[in-house]
Write a structure and sequence with these properties.
There is one protein chain. By secondary structure, the protein is an all-alpha fold. It has one domain. The protein contains 16 helices and no strands. α2 packs parallel to α8, α3 packs parallel to α11 and α7 runs antiparallel to α8.
Amino acid sequence: MNWTEKIFGTTGLKPDQIVGPIPATKDIVKRTFTIAWPSATEAVLISLIGAVDMMMVGQLGAGAIASVGITNQPKFILFSVIIALNIGLTVIVSRRKGQKDAASANQLVRNAIVISTLISAIFYTVGYIYAPQILKFSGASADYIDTSVIYFRIVLIGMFFYSIGSTITAAQRGAGNTKISMKTNISANVVNVIFNFLLINGIWIFPRWGVMGAAVATSLGNVVAFLIAIRSASAKDGFLSLSFKQDWRLHKATILSLFNISKSALVEQIFLRIGFFTYVLAIAGLGTIAFATHQVVMNVMTISFAVGDGLSIACSSLVGQSLGAKRPDMAIIYGKTTQRIGFLIAIGLGLFIAVFRVEIISLFNKDPQILSSGSTIMLLLAVIMLFQIAQVITIGSLRGAGDVKFVAFISLLSVTIVRPLLTYLFAYPLGLGLTGAWLSVLLDQSLRYVISKRRFAQATWTRIEV
């Protein structure tokens, strides 16, 4: 028995679960890697570029880090409806790909793009107008709120284009075209980093705009992502092929099928955003240094989340395509295979972060207080990511099957209720401060892992119709 069979063997299936011939383990692993590596690479590189972005901003001081970081949750709250729309789109496109129904898939994508455009125009206009009130409510301090408002408004302009592009790439992921999404987002983020360097520091003929320069660079990158995504969907020989000559009218049956999946995903996003917003609000109350430290560690955590998220996207696509092809046994196998890949990566990442935690933090900021507090929290992060990567992939399996109502329940229980309550308890009454807030993250991730793993093992999600 070779090493792939030992680690990724599929003998865990019950006899009554097997529907047809099972490919060799090495072939299963190979296909999983073929779909997974572009989305995982994309997510990791984007998070790394985001970390470089924060390092550049970090040169301007703790206040600059806080002014950029405080905009994250409001930005994602506005983006949450698009995320929900994209989740439903990925799920249904993957099913249609398994059924080889390109016509229905393309009609769905056209309708989703129209909806995404309308929602983005409304939400980001509201966000732009009420930016000061939104950021003040989010916990922004008086010493950096003016800078935050400027950053937030400029970024929202780019988010309009990014949202439409993300809907297209979500459809491409569902069709298994993860390389397209990878190329789109990596290209955009390279543009972001280049203009960060030029506009934050005022290099050559470019002005020294500081935090505002970072916002302009982000928006330029998002416009590039939009243009590349549009081009990717115009190929005539692909499963997904869009043209302005096609029928772009909204179709009731198509919208309803998308709404049936996306509505539960939206509920999940609402629960997530309420939980994350309350969590960040509690941390913002600990002071500028504590919040800046939190943002630094969050940037590192984003990298580990990116690994899980990238594998989760691939897993959702493989699960959806397998169920569309009437192979629930293969859906289970791909889910387990991806989970095991994620666990191996999590161990390596956790060890690396634990050993080099001080050096990693110093890349962002060398403030002694940030280094001292951050190194302790990085040890917690090394443990957190073992549960984080595992639960993100497992939830991706459930989401790919259309089990979005249960995923929403997990978010309600763990992120909206457990994490904020424990954060306030640990950080304030028990006096653990920022360390207490991150202990709540560990318990939150552990709870999500246990619940999602149990649901996956029951295999009831393989019988959901989309």
